[in-house]
Design brief:
single chain, alpha/beta, Purple Acid Phosphatase, chain A, domain 2, nine-stranded mixed β-sheet, seven-stranded mixed β-sheet, about 25% helix, binds zinc ion
């Protein structure tokens, strides 16, 4: 169960119920990191003063730490084959794509997803993707809260397609990041309060695959631009206790973060980001801790790979679920971020139908033998051991398994 209290200063309000930490949140300490934090001086001073006053006047026992869980998945890359897999007599039902992982996603206090393809009500394939609105129903059903819409495919269906996607997601009470329907919206900051912790979100994409933002609406989707990122981070950082940044970046099919990714990640760390969630390369990339000159530390997952796709490369079948447990002192000083990335596998049968997602830990030789990828690419052989080896090689100490 999750608790989402108020969304302040910004787009939407989320509500939920009391938090009960899931077992998975307790067992992900193999990659525990404890980090100092230097943020939000004014607000934290206020909180500390309140706490001290209570201690001296009531002699109350020390307040407990505050813990939240943050989850995230990569690209919902809806080739027309994936949408066709989810076709029903009545329309579309994409919940099949999330059945395996929905219990985990719902257990997170806050869950992020990258909606790579815009939802317009149509089904179109690369290079101008479009997918049905029912995808938004499935995202909500699965337990996602925050949806990134700043991708290189944001403008595949033009301004109209982008705005229809934004509208469809918001109608399901999903918080969208990375884009806006008006200048006023673009000027608002997204800060979501969970268990009293204010979580700020920023989001940027590297490009729009050759399309351009409308000349009169340069604010519509956030593009990576260092000056703009610095300004946005400096504005939102003092207003939140945790700063999470979605970056749609990197080189497709490369397991290695590019020099550009590393430079931008360091810039974000220097500007006070606590967590970076990377998407776009369609394959997993490593995670690591970055540190600024003044000692601020930032956890960067460079790419979570595809959540689901109709692609035909072996490495594109392997994605990850980011699972972080984040602990704050009673005065909301960030104390630690623990966790890592749980590997998942996209499964489909020939001819590219019946798409599903499995945890790699549950992915059997029988499933692998039945995978439709070898019909598409005879040289590609699905093998659970090879996928596990790849996940271990890329993620190293940050590879974790679901509980
Ligand atoms: Zn992309």
């Amino acid at each position: 169960m999750k608790r989402l209290a108020a969304l302040v200063l910004c787009l939407l309000v989320l509500a939920g119920c009391a938090q009960t930490p899931a077992p998975s949140e307790i067992t992900t300490s193999t990659t525990a990191q404890v980090m100092p934090e230097t943020t939000s001086t004014t607000l934290k001073t206020q909180t500390t003063t309140t706490s001290e006053t209570q201690t001296t006047t009531t002699a109350a026992p020390p307040e407990p730490d505050v813990t939240i869980t943050l989850g995230g998945v990569g690209d919902i890359l809806l080739h027309s084959s994936v949408s066709r897999s989810c076709k029903t007599d009545a329309g579309y039902d994409f919940t099949r794509l999330f059945e395996t992982v929905a219990p985990l996603i719902r257990s997170f206090d806050l869950a992020f997803v990258n909606q790579e393809v815009m939802l317009t009500g149509k089904v179109e394939n690369y290079p101008r993707f479009a997918a049905p609105f029912e995808v938004a129903d499935a995202l909500k059903w699965a337990g996602f809260d925050v949806v990134n819409v700043a991708t290189n495919h944001s403008l595949d269906q033009g301004e109209k397609g982008f705005l229809s996607c934004l509208d469809a997601l918001r109608q399901r009470d999903l918080v969208t990041i990375g884009g806006a329907a008006s200048q006023a919206e673009a000027d608002e900051e997204t800060i979501i309060e969970v268990n009293g912790v204010r979580i700020g979100f920023l989001s940027y994409t590297y490009d729009f695959n050759g399309f351009s933002l409308p000349s009169d609406k340069p604010w519509m989707i956030n593009q990576i631009e260092e000056g703009r990122i610095r300004a946005d981070a400096r504005s939102i950082r003092p207003k939140c206790d945790l700063l999470v940044v979605s970056m749609h970046w990197g080189v497709e099919y490369s397991h290695d973060p590019s020099s550009r990714q590393r430079k931008l990640a360091q810039l974000l760390c220097d500007e006070g980001a606590d967590v970076i969630i990377g998407t776009h390369p369609h394959v997993l990339q490593p995670a690591e801790w970055l540190e600024s000159a003044n000692g601020h530390r930032c956890f960067c997952a460079y790419s979570l790979g595809n959540y689901v796709s109709g692609q035909t490369r072996l490495a594109a079948m392997l994605g990850g679920i980011l699972e972080l447990t984040i602990t704050f002192s009673p005065s909301l000083e960030l104390k630690s971020i623990e966790g890592g990335i749980i590997p998942i596998v996209t499964q489909y049968e020939a001819p590219r139908t019946g798409h599903r997602v499995y945890y790699l830990s549950q992915y059997t030789k029988e499933l692998a033998d039945a995978h439709g990828i070898s019909e598409e690419e005879p040289d590609v052989v699905m093998d659970p051991d090879a996928l596990t080896e790849l996940a271990q090689r890329v993620l190293g100490d940050y590879l974790i398994w679901e509980s």
